[in-house]
Specification:
Helix content is about 45%, strand content about 10%. The protein is of the alpha/beta class. The strands form 2 sheets. It has a 4-stranded mixed β-sheet with strand order 2-3-4-5, sandwiched between helices. A two-stranded parallel ribbon has the order 1-6. Helix 1 (about 60-75) links the parallel strand 4 (about 45-50) and strand 5.
Length: about 260
Amino acid sequence: MLRVVPRALRLPRPWRPFRARGCASDGAAGSPEIQVRALAGPDQGISEILMNRPRARNALGNVLVSELLDALARLREERQVRVLIFRSGVKGVFCAGADLKEREQMSEAEVGVFVQRLRGLMDDIASSAVMGLIETTRGLLPGAGGTQRLPRCLGVALAKELIFTGRRLSGEQAHSLGLVNHAVAQNEEGDAAYHRARELAREILPQAPIAVRLGKVAIDRGIEVDIASGMAIEGICYAQNIPTRDRLEGMAAFREKRPPRFVGE
């Protein structure tokens, strides 16, 4: 997952709400905390997820997590979605991490279930571990995968330092450590990072969707195993791409010296 900081602030319309079922919100009654928008025109194929829980600074509570899981499940079934951008509707913040006020009211069993769902969510969006780091300052161990993802990003020594101290990082610090891909100077509108994210999305958009998806699988699965096993995973992914129409289209476009027209088949 490509990451840009600071996060987007000002948001155009229209947005489509995704409502979770079987959850009670501690925010405004009936107000969706997750909204989805599909872009149009030359950006068709890019969708955006808006996190909008201002009272809790987008903290990951039951409702937000449920709505986000619901949105991701639905978007996964939409073939036209090629690139997904996560945005914040709360000025000056992306996500405050776990909702510790809500968690304080949970039983031990409820906490276990919630953390398991949160861990699955983090796997779904291939997120970094930064959101879980601040928990150590409140007597908690990162439980959504932070102790596993951060060492894989930064190495064991630096991961221990950040987790043990509970240190908060600025965007520039996160960039210098390699936790985010880009850090941009903020503009007057407060949406500089969003524009950079859109630029990246537009670079990805014209690429062959199946090849991008299989490349993601090969990287994500391969990084967890030894190099020989990783090569085998890459080989399996490569073999799945060989019979696709997009691969043939790419070869034809190269031969005919024209832009390829990929269809995701």
